[in-house]
Specification:
The structure is a homodimer. Chain A is α/β, with parallel strands linked by helices and about 400 residues long. Chain A is built from 18 helices and eleven strands. In chain A, the strands form three sheets. In chain A, strands 1, 2, 3, 4, 5, 6 and 9 form a seven-stranded parallel sheet that branches. In chain A, strands 7-8 form a two-stranded antiparallel sheet. A two-stranded antiparallel sheet of chain A has the order 10-11. In chain A, helix 10 packs antiparallel against helix 11 and helix 15 packs antiparallel against helix 16. The radius of gyration of chain A is 22 Å and the shape is globular. Chains A and B meet through strand 1, strand 8, helix 13 and helix 17 of A and strand 1, strand 8, helix 13 and helix 17 of B. Strand 1 of chain A pairs antiparallel with strand 1 of chain B, so a sheet runs across the interface. The structure holds nicotinamide-adenine-dinucleotide (2 copies) and zinc ion (2 copies).
Chain lengths: ~400, ~400
């Protein structure tokens, strides 16, 4: 046969920094990072894209950035900041993508310039996508400002926007140049967004790290009460587990297996059919609860461990159920989520379930009747007070 | 300092096949490729995107594809073919991108399905981009139908579309799943497109392989006359040199050096200001001529070798100059190409020049006066008959 074989590998490397007051003049982290990659005689451009809600909660931020980068020897700041709406709308409406791309064009941002996104997971997903497709990839720096983006979405290699209401229909796999998790930004987060970001920590603990799950149980109330030390530990451990998983596995997801999507098949659909009124982390909490109880119903997870998961979710203040999660027929729209999940992933349907806390296993089909049963159990559990000692179901 | 370090590498691998009559039932290449990656019990979908001019020159192609994949055990063919305009318009007008993405959505094409692009470099760049951003990357199979796409653009890792008239402003680096170079498609190519595809072979010979340049000189007339054996050798050797370069160097172009862009800084600009009436390969021929004569003027390339390059270009039937390449002032629009080239690449301006045939070297600035002088020499050379023995210039 007449052919040429091509084989090569590409190395990727980046750091996720944990800090506070990133743009105060005393904090040299950002500057030092730029210095570490500086090439004599070359000034890179740097363009900021900021979540509108961050500009509202931190009205001095623009000024601080200007001051921080004034006379910086490594980068030339584009004075105009690109402000985009915060939340899922940033990923839903094409005009925000266009705004960033037009700014790249207008300000002559090149492949060796930086685009810095500051915001929640939505703004970071949007900014990352715009950076990834402009000039075949501009260096992206993420400044994550929500619990969810600091412990999960902001530290990984994915970006994306929605298309025709479908989550992340357009996107790429591109590692960031660097990530800054600045704890101070979290202080202005609403309680609802705060709590919602904890579900990804519970998720990763459930499939990867029983000891971290124990720790989460022991600190559940502190986490719900926004205790700083506990939250900082949780974010770092969660980020670490996510990053380990990415590096150790299949970073660009060429295979069909996606353990980090535990609990997500129903979550993505729930977000969509509620028009994103249910937050990602809330939907994930319900998805975790559903697949945990289902794991119990198929006999792989013990009743005790099932109850521990439900109790932790409730203690943190995460929801277990929702009117659209009241599944009574195989025609329920949530079930379309299974097909869409497979379509997005491709290949064989692969869903992670739990064997025990800290250990998952994969199945390739789900029993609709048992899913419905699990959803009914969760409707009851949602209403009843926390009953750690009592059996949950059936 | 409080941080997590992330490091990983991603392996890429694909084959470029040289064949004829890819979709005739006797040709099992495509089928065998699908078989080689088949997983028991899983049918992948396969969607075709075809260059409109191919559908005109090969009116039975659609039927042949249907017959080829009928009852195929590995893939389920999407019967509807997506037809997009051939040529640069495919990359210029957003509606073609949208058509492909909407087909992905409508037909439920997932990350483990295949998108097959059949066409010239333009349609392949467009299709590759659509595949790269849909669901964060659908497997792309390229069937290259022009000399240029078979010997250069189709075998590499880049895709892209134009934005606001800027070449490849949007795009990504994503290796294909596989490439088929079917010689039979080339038979219907216009002479102009044929000849134009040879300039990339001259380019890669000049910077990488003096022996291949000798061979090109010896076969120049056969190549211009569309001799099959000579063309097949040229395409394969050129593809090989391109692919070696990609694998051996910096596949995703993280650095500033892009040797394969020899002759391209003025070429991209010339294409744009002539509204793509000058073909990519023609513009590259003029760009090669310009940077070759410039190499001579700065004293790095001998007069003999300079003349050999000019003579080869002329013998093949490639242009040396153009009214817009009549450079007389630093305000000439072509010079803006230098800045845009740098902007697209980023970092330090890095231009390859020639030390000798087969060996390039990099410089970081060009002398506008000498560029103008080179352009005038080429205007004269364009008009004069081939004078292999006579000194070219000044
Ligand atoms: N790329 C990935 O790997 C990945 C992983 C998980 C989730 N995600 C995506 O992340 C998105 C959710 O991100 P999120 O949970 O961070 O929510 P979000 O980005 O939608 O932000 C929630 C709200 O908080 C606001 N906000 C952000 N920072 C704030 C602050 N410091 N103070 C006050 N308000 C602030 C935002 O403007 C928004 O209104 C979803 O689109 C989800 O799909 C991506
Ligand atoms: N991705 C890369 O690495 C890379 C490298 C070099 C060039 N390119 C791009 O490739 C494009 C040029 O590609 P091209 O030179 O193949 O031209 P093209 O794709 O524009 O095709 C030229 C013309 O030939 C027609 N055509 C295609 N195949 C034919 C056939 N077999 N018979 C008859 N007509 C046929 C097309 O419809 C079009 O009208 C440019 O956009 C250039 O920027 C990309
Ligand atoms: Zn998630
Ligand atoms: Zn080229």
């Amino acid at each position: 046969m007449n052919y040429i074989q091509q084989d090569f590998s590409v190395q990727f490397s980046y750091k996720v920094f944990f800090t506070e007051f990133l743009f105060s003049l005393e904090n040299r982290l950002f500057n030092d990072l730029l210095e570490s990659v500086h090439e004599e005689g070359i000034m890179r451009k740097i363009l900021f894209v900021i979540d509108e809600n961050i500009t509202i909660h931190f009205p001095k931020l623009g000024e601080q950035i200007d001051t921080y980068f004034k006379d910086n020897p490594y980068v030339k700041l584009v004075p105009e900041k690109v402000i985009v709406a915060g939340g899922e709308i940033a990923k839903n409406e094409e005009r925000f993508l266009t705004t960033i791309i037009d700014a790249v064009n207008e300000h002559g941002i090149d492949r060796h310039s930086y685009i810095v996104g500051i915001g929640g997971g939505s703004v970071l997903d949007l900014t990352g996508y715009a950076a990834a497709i402009s000039h075949r990839g501009i260096k992206l720096i993420r400044v994550a400002t929500t619990v969810l983006s600091q412990d999960d979405s902001g530290v990984g290699v994915k970006n994306g926007v929605n298309y025709k209401g479908k989550k992340n229909f357009l996107g790429t796999f591109v590692p960031p140049f660097a990530v800054f998790n600045d704890y101070h930004f979290l202080t202005t987060l609403s309680d609802r967004d705060w709590v919602s970001g904890i579900s990804e920590a519970i998720k990763v603990a459930l499939i990867k790290d029983a000891a971290f799950f124990d720790w989460l149980e022991q600190h559940a109330e502190q986490l719900a009460n926004r205790d700083k030390e506990a939250t900082q530990y949780m974010i770092k451990r969660c980020a670490e587990l996510h990053m380990d998983h990415i590096a150790g596995g299949d970073p660009f997801e060429f295979g069909s297996s996606r353990p980090l999507d535990f609990g997500h098949w129903s979550a993505h659909k729930l977000e969509q059919i509620t028009d994103f009124k249910v937050l990602h982390g809330e939907a994930v909490a319900m998805g975790i609860a559903l697949d945990t109880v289902y794991s119990n119903l198929v006999g792989s997870l013990s009743e005790t461990e099932t109850n521990r998961v439900i109790t932790l979710l409730k203690t943190i203040g995460l929801p277990l159920s929702h009117e659209y999660m009241n599944l009574t027929s195989a025609d329920d729209p949530i079930f379309a989520g299974l097909r869409e999940f497979q379509e997005h992933l491709g290949g064989r349907l692969t869903i992670m379930l739990l064997k025990s806390i800290g250990t998952g296993y994969e199945v390739h089909e789900l029993d609709a009747q048992l899913i419905m049963k699990a959803s009914q159990i969760l409707r009851n559990a949602q209403e009843s007070p926390n009953q750690q000692k009592q059996p949950l179901s059936c």
